[in-house]
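dumping the sequnces here before i forget
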Amino acid sequence: MKIGNVEVKISVISIGVFVIFTIFLILASLNSPDVRSNLIWLIPVLFMLLVIPVALNYMSRSQYAELEPEYERQAKTVRVKLINENMIGKIVRIDGVVERVHFQFLNRPQYSVADRSGAISVKMFTSPDEEIKVNDLVVVLGQVIRRYIVTGEPVVNCVSIRKKRDTDDA
Amino acid sequence: MSSSTVSATPGMNNQQYLELAIPLFSFGATFAGVILWSRGIEINFQFFALGCVIGSCLLAYLAWCRPKKDIVALSTPIYAFIFFVVPTDYMSGIVLQMLYAASLTLLLVRLKYRFGEAHTAVSAGKELASPLRDYVDLTRDAVSGLSPETAHQAAVVISQFSTGEYARAAGTLGGSSGSLPAILSRAAGIANEHALLLEGSAPRPANYKTFLPEDEALLAKPLPPSEDEERHFDAQLDNALLVIFSAAWIGAETDRPHLLGCQAFLLKLFQ
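..and the predicted 3d for all of it:
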């Protein structure tokens, strides 16, 4: 679904929650006249279960889209090996291959991206522009953070991850 | 004159005692409760969950002490509170506490095998790790005799590379390269070239600075075959930074705390 220039994605969890509560509402309204009399506000509330995740996704993705040019300007292309805890807060670009993908279904994907020097965890707090799969060659833009904000090893808080194009090497 | 020594790590013994204490407290308190009840002393069985709560706190502490954190072990005190805040009767209390104690023991095993050892003097930044110590000893004769100012500049280069301040690193050690030992001069040239390329996010150039074949005995990493151009190029920087580190460690004793702070970065260069 596209709102303005932003491609909005809704997670399967949100759809699942909506479907379950829809079934509950249908069953309840079939069995209870009290529920039927309140459908005028129950149905809009039910749709809020879809609208709220869509709105949140739209807001996060539009914010990430605004940040991307600034990150593109500031980022330095580094090998994974050079990323260390002294670089917390630095904006980096990594060229690598995706080794693992987790939590894509939650719209909070985590990737393990490797280059010839090592691998690093790349966390994203919204859905990426394009679907990224294992073995894709990607360009990652993001900020070095600690895994658990105040502690843990350095990971990349990703603002943009996209498949590598031929023009990236130019 | 390496200041670092392989010290005994008394913390390790404490860690082992704590590891032992986790199943001891969590199972022991429940067993104590069972024994007391069997002798007719029927104290509220919820109180014997205190062993599990203490075990959870110890497990969380052990997880906190490790460089690699285990979020599951860290959050066990919260679960202990949730599980044991509600009063339970005798039989369900035993079952809950035994299952919880068994879970803590499994989490302890998982912590030990999947999340490495606790912080050591090396990981805490108090002591130089052995690969770096050995490398400093190997290169001592080749890079010693620097002026304190030059050695400080070498330390600054290491610090700037570790923090990703490549623009500032470029040229920091290049100015007086005529007075540098030969291998350090080449290392400074390589580091400067890479710093400029990293700052501009530029790709590997066709021609780039390298160490000479006569330097190979003093390099930390063997250079990959030149056919593997990318790795060959990367290894030049890794070796250059380690040569510069060695010079800084030997010549700038006052900068050693800063260099220890860059240790995790430097150790990765050996890989």
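The longest helix of chain A spans residues 39-74.
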